[in-house]
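Page 37, continued from 36.
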């Protein structure tokens, strides 16, 4: 089927390739000429202006947006929606806040345009391995787009989880869980790395744990891969960003009075990773000196 894809970054570009490989016809747009050039293969038509998107598609049009959450999505929808007709579909496959997705769905529904939110997991490996898709939207819109979802997803790798907003809600919690899992692996491997009794080969242990261990996982397979390249991770700075979903998961846990200490602490650990020097830690050191005469380290 036909589809317009707006945003050809790490995820969008690979999704386009996978869809074309399965026989779909793609119209693409990205502000970066280099991004457009990278996916220039048979079956893909690139347009230079968002205003050309709708006329490049036959009704019932499907426009998939793969952009960073927030203003970029709203601005794109504002430019695209006036070109569309009742029954056309906009899919947001980025990591948008589910409340934004509910708001967008309500506004577009009033114009007769369907809105589908698709939480997409799989990273850069999705091109070959397939993605996991968490879909929110009306049954009719999701059913119409099902050939796209089947082409992108692994076998049993997509589900219609509820109305508009539900897809991004499920993806939000998914990413919150990911935060906790990453932090658990990080802490475990750091203990192994810090051992004073044993000189452990971390890549060997990661490989071992991937065979029959209860902590085996795709994330640990990636840990094995990273540690095999550099067991000391010497070329990497321990600076960890968060893209929003972890924060939103913690906020939702607080709103629902659900205890989520692991996800919360993993989010705070990311904040700490971005500090070159912790003022709070300096204050603790100063207080220990004041009340107990403990030595402090100076710069």
């Amino acid at each position: 089927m036909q589809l317009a894809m707006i945003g050809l970054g790490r995820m969008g570009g690979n999704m386009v390739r996978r869809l074309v490989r399965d026989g779909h016809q793609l119209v693409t747009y990205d502000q970066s000429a280099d991004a457009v050039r990278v996916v220039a293969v048979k079956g893909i038509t690139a347009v230079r202006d968002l205003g050309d998107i709708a006329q490049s598609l036959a009704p019932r049009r499907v426009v998939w947006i793969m952009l960073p959450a927030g203003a970029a999505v709203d601005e794109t929808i504002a430019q695209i929606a006036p070109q569309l007709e009742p029954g056309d579909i906009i899919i947001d496959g980025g990591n948008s806040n589910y409340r934004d997705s509910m708001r967008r769905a309500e506004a577009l529904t009033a114009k007769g345009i369907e809105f589908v939110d698709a939480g997409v997991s799989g990273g850069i490996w999705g091109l070959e391995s397939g993605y996991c898709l968490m879909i929110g939207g009306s049954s009719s819109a999701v059913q119409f787009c099902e050939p796209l979802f089947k082409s992108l997803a692994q076998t049993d790798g997509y589900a219609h989880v509820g109305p508009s907003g539900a897809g991004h809600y499920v993806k939000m919690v998914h990413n919150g869980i990911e935060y906790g899992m990453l932090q658990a692996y990080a802490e475990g491997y750091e203990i192994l790395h810090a051992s004073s009794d044993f000189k452990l080969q971390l890549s060997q242990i990661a490989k071992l744990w991937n065979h029959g261990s209860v902590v085996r996982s795709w994330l640990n397979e990636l840990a094995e891969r990273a540690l095999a390249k550099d067991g000391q991770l010497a070329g990497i700075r321990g600076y960890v960003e968060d893209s929003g979903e972890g924060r939103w998961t913690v906020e939702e846990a607080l709103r629902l009075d659900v205890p989520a200490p692991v996800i919360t602490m993993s989010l705070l650990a990311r904040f700490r990773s971005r500090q070159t020097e912790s003022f709070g830690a300096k204050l603790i050191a100063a207080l220990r000196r004041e009340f107990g005469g403990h030595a402090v380290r100076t710069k």
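The longest strand covers residues 153-162. Flag for discussion at group meeting. DSSP finds twelve helices and eight strands in the chain.
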